[in-house]
Amino acid sequence: TRGWKCPVIIDNMMNLELLFEATALSGDSTFYNIAVKHADTTMAHHFRPDNSCYHVVDYDPETGEVRKKQTAQGYADESSWARGQAWALYGYTTCYRYTKDKKYLDQAQKVYNFIFNNKNMPEDLVPYWDYDAPNIPNEPRDASAAACTASALYELDGYLPDNHYKETADKIMQSLGSPAYRAKVGTNGNFILMHSVGSIPHGQEIDVPLNYADYYFLEGLMRKRNLEKK
Question: Which of 38, 153, 191, 199 is deepest in the core (most CB within 10 A)?
Fold first, then answer.
């Protein structure tokens, strides 16, 4: 209905790990090269001057030119959808893991700075579903964005240990582990975390538990444990 021809979402940064692993497992560099090309193209076109990212960039499949920059699950085309920023932070941190290319580390840091210098970031570091949602502070939070961000920061701290990334991640995890977000056992459909958002524009999964919130919360706990063991 929007006339997209080749829509690419910032979420796709999370898929690149599969391509990097495919090369590691097979020895075929094709998958690695595709991942790098995707990361570089996304870096060129998905980010605004303030280092926030668009949700959707639509490309011309014939020429590769950008046709539109929009949102699907965010508040507006020029707003900053919270989980999208988390996908970007996590995705570029992962790209650095496999390539050791400093530009990906730099991009992850830029996204971090946007997130944590944002005037609409709540004190408990669990963001509203969109940093530009019109009714802040009366907007739903997105625990899934917080969990993904925290998990990424534990990895990022391993590469840049003097930037307080672990300290920030610990604060997020403390919030998520509190009664404000962590459900009592046996409630909440047996999910761990409450208060995530799927897509408000679509009227779907608003202030509910989500499986990827729980996934990145558990991954974050494991990464925290492993970091502290070292």
Answer: 153
